[in-house]
Every structure is written in C-alpha cells, then in structure tokens.
C-alpha cells in the first residue's frame, strides 16, 4: 500500500458552503492532498474572504455564488464550474443550517427551511453533479451527516430529521450510483468547536461540560480532525467503500456515557 492512494493531484472538489468551519477545514485537507478547491455561498462577500484564505494556503481556489436549494441556480453553476475550472471529481455536501427550538414552539416554515438546506440541498446538488460523473465514469460524493443522524436531542428536531434523512439519502445514492464507479459516503462529525456550536460551547455552560464528559476522547473536536476522513473518502483509497457513514466523534456513538458523579 502506498501513500499515493490518498493523492488528489489534478482533482477538482466542490465543497458546498465551504467558507468557514468544518467545510473550510475539509477543503484545506483536500487542497493539501492536491485538489483544486471550489466553494459556494449565497453571498459574494464571504466567498471573497474564503478564496483569499485558500489562495494564501497555496491552493487553486474558486468561488461561485449559488443557493443549494434552488435547482436552476445549481444547474447553471455546475455548468459554469465544469467549463471554467474542470469536471467535478469530488463533491462534499457540507452546506447546512441549524435551528434550536423546542418542537411545540417551532414554526413550520423554520422546520421546512432546515430540511430544505440540509437534506433537499444535497439531493439537488448531487443529482446535478452525478449526471456528469456518470458520463465521465466515476466520482466521489461525501454527505456531511451528524451525531443527529443517529441520536435525538432537545431543540434540534428539524436538524436531526434532515441529518437522519441525509444518512438514508447517502445509502440510496450508493445503491443507485456505485455501479457507475461513484462512491457515495457520509462523514458524521461529533461535537466540534465551530461557530455553529459556539452558543452551546461557552465555558461554564452546562452543555460544554456535558459534551466533554459524554465524549470518550474528553474534548471537542477540532475542525482539522475531519481532514483524514475527507481525504480518505475523496481518494482512490476508498474506491470500494460505498454507503458508509464514517463517524468522527471521539467515540460518542460507541458509548452510553456514564453517571455524572464518575
Ligand atoms: C447541537 C449541535 C449539533 C452539532 C453536530 C453534532 O445543537 O446539538 O449543534 O447538532 O452541530 O451536528 O454532530
Ligand atoms: Ca481535473
């Protein structure tokens, strides 16, 4: 076995919403392995900063404005990316949102918005990217799932519903597309130190202590902790790996936890 199994030189990777946090860390991992980075966002401003940061890392990087929930925008953007940058070899469905509201207080429109971005978005982008991958004879699709693909938690019903759905969408894509040499898999991050978890990670917040205690590795994940999984599932090393969710969670899903006085 050679380390070249993980080389991504000459590959083009689209990381949706890859302008900060976990998406940016995964994109940097792929860039370090040799890939050209393409990211999108709804607004131009955040893209400019992200592209500057990628370029400062020495990567070839490109930004496109489009909304993953709008199929006409996605279709046009993918045509543009593939003619201006190159065929998309790797798609990371990373763009996502969360709303933390108890079910009885949650507006239907908010519930639908989370499902739209976190579940329908990956469907739309994958559908449109996979058509080209099928014609070209292969590709890699990584859906960013969550602990909430497996576990419930107070206030995150829409997010958990979407991420549970994304796990099953991953298996459905693997079922339909593995024969086209497209490997579709998921990454399920545990609890990571990002802006998304900032409100529940503050020192002294009971949730902060709860997570550290609930995680066998006894810490929050750092975004860089996802890079190995992202490179693996983007590379030749995973060419017969289909429909898995690779949980990178410091062991959370391995254990029921322990009483608070131990
Ligand atoms: C929460 C968190 C989670 C994480 C993550 C866990 O409120 O419980 O925000 O949902 O973001 O996805 O894997
Ligand atoms: Ca290429």
TrEMBL record:
* Any GO molecular function: oxidoreductase activity, acting on the CH-OH group of donors, NAD or NADP as acceptor
- Report the PANTHER family cross-referenced here: 3-OXOACYL-[ACYL-CARRIER-PROTEIN] REDUCTASE FABG (PTHR42760:SF115), SHORT-CHAIN DEHYDROGENASES/REDUCTASES FAMILY MEMBER (PTHR42760)
Organism, as annotated: Polaribacter gangjinensis
| InterPro entries assigned to the protein according to its UniProt record, in alphabetical order | NAD(P)-bd_dom_sf (IPR036291), Sc_DH/Rdtase_CS (IPR020904), SDR_fam (IPR002347)
Q: Which family does it belong to?
A: Belongs to the short-chain dehydrogenases/reductases (SDR) family.
Pfam families per the UniProt record, alphabetical: adh_short (PF00106)
Question: What keywords are annotated for this sequence in UniProt?
Answer: Oxidoreductase
Per its record, how is this protein called by name?
A: Gluconate 5-dehydrogenase
Q: What Gene3D superfamilies has UniProt attached to this entry?
A: NAD(P)-binding Rossmann-like Domain
């Amino acid at each position: 076995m050679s380390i070249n199994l993980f080389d991504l030189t000459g590959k083009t990777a689209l990381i949706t919403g890859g302008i900060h946090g976990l998406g940016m860390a995964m994109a940097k991992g792929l860039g370090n392995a040799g890939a050209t980075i393409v990211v999108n966002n709804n607004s131009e401003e955040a893209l400019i900063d992200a592209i500057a940061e990628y370029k400062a890392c020495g990567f070839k990087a490109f930004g496109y404005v489009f909304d993953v929930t709008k199929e006409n925008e996605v279709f046009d953007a993918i045509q543009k990316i593939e003619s201006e940058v190159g065929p998309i070899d790797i798609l990371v469905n990373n763009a996502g949102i969360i709303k933390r509201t108890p079910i009885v207080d949650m507006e239907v429109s908010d519930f639908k918005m989370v499902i739209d971005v976190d579940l329908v978005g990956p469907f739309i982008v994958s559908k449109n990217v996979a058509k080209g991958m099928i014609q070209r004879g292969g590709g890699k699709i990584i859906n960013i799932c969550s602990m909430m693909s497996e576990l419930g938690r107070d206030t995150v019903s829409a997010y958990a519903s979407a991420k549970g759905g994304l796990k099953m969408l991953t298996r459905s894509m693997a079922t339909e597309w593995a024969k086209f040499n497209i490997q579709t898999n998921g990454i399920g991050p545990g609890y990571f130190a990002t802006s998304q978890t900032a409100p529940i990670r503050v020192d002294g917040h009971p949730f902060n202590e709860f997570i550290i205690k609930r995680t066998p590795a006894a810490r929050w994940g750092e975004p860089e902790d996802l890079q190995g999984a992202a490179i693996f599932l983007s590379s030749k090393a995973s060419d017969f790996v289909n429909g898995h969710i690779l949980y990178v969670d410091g062991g959370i899903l391995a254990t029921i936890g322990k009483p608070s006085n131990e």
